[in-house]
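Sequence, please.
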């Protein structure tokens, strides 16, 4: 199974409004086949798009092709690209058609530091929703005299929030007006969290969540992730539906898939039906349809090749010996193993399975190419040879 197919299966129930296979292939084309099991959570939920600093410029073609192929904007081909003077908006225009990408610097208000302890509604909501501290409802809340530490206590539970002012850009010291932004870290029981903005508004110190700057389209239907790398702003396409648990699942399954594929590639000789089961399980594309596969062997039962000769519900009238033995004759095979899967996961042979096997065994005897087994794959396997049917 390819990495793209595996990732598509993992994501198909969690991704809405995306071309899943296309997104999987983008991950693979950017990071390389075989490397997906080594990706971090952050890398797994985004795909590189283009460099903001190289548009207009080297990456203009990438942007226009994306608009044409993925956003289905045929007019984008040969469109003109410009960037506003502030560098925060890209405009694509062709005749009367236009489209923009712009920075989104939205931030979320959390609470007013100066309102505590008289008004604790915002603080309590922040502690519960953002820091996931459930017991703070109806807790006793105090602030020390120098206005730098808030104490929240309830029963045996106590937390301390200490305000730390840090420089942000060219600004130093305490904010002096509502246009000045300052980074602030709240120290929670000795642990510093540098992820909040502090603004002085109408004489009060207000705290905002510092959201990552994102990129949005003018119709607000597409959002992208921005990240500064090697002095340039890189734009990534976010894959919806991947959280931390899903990312860990992807990493584990890709590692497992990689090992299984290596095991299948390293298998040179077939001795037992269980080896056929392991080998063919990695070769059959999916379990939604029935695939009829022929494994070609030399005189020492070493694998020459494998071929899928039929896709769909199998019956004795659809499987023709000519199709089954064509590649075996062409490649000089001494013997073959028949394999097909049951989407129901029950490997018990049907009447048609038995008829097909009998026909192909007889054909093999006539032309001198032995059918040494027919293995049916489900959640386990059924071997005609092991069950004395061949």
């Amino acid at each position: 199974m390819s990495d793209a197919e595996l990732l598509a299966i993992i994501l198909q129930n969690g991704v809405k409004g995306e071309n899943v296979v296309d997104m999987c292939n983008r991950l693979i084309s950017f990071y390389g086949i075989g490397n997906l099991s080594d990706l971090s959570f952050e890398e797994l939920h985004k795909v590189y798009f283009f460099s903001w600093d190289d548009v207009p410029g080297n990456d203009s073609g990438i942007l226009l092709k994306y608009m044409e192929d993925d956003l289905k904007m045929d007019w984008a081909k040969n469109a003109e690209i410009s960037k506003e003077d502030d560098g925060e908006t890209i405009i694509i225009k062709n005749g009367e058609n236009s489209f923009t990408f712009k920075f989104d610097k939205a931030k979320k208000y959390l609470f007013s530091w100066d309102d505590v302890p008289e008004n604790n509604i915002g603080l309590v909501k922040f502690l519960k929703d953002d820091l996931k501290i459930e017991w703070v409802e109806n807790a006793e809340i105090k602030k020390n005299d120098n206005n730098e530490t808030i104490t929240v206590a309830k029963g045996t539970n106590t937390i301390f929030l200490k305000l730390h002012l840090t420089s942000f850009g060219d600004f130093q010291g305490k904010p002096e007006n509502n246009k000045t932004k300052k980074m602030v870290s709240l120290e929670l029981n000795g642990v510093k969290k540098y992820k909040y903005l502090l603004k002085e508004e109408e004489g009060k110190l207000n705290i905002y969540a510092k959201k990552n700057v994102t990129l949005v389209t003018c119709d607000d239907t597409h959002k992208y992730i921005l990240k500064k790398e090697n002095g340039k702003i890189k734009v990534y396409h976010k894959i919806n539906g991947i959280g931390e648990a899903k990312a860990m699942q992807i990493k584990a399954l890709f590692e497992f898939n990689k090992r299984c594929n290596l095991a299948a590639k390293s298998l040179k000789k077939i001795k037992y039906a269980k080896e056929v089961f392991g080998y063919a399980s990695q070769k059959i594309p999916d379990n939604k349809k029935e695939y009829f596969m022929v494994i070609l062997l030399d005189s020492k039962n070493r694998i020459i090749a494998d071929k899928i000769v039929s896709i769909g519900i199998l019956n004795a009238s659809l499987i023709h010996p000519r199709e089954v033995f064509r590649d075996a004759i062409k490649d000089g095979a001494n013997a073959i193993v028949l394999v097909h899967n049951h989407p129901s996961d029950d490997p018990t042979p049907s009447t048609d399975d038995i008829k097909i096997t009998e026909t192909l065994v007889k054909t093999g005897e006539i032309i001198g190419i032995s059918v040494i087994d027919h293995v049916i794959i489900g959640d386990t396997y059924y071997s005609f040879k092991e069950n004395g049917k061949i």
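Residues 244-266 form the longest helix (23 residues).
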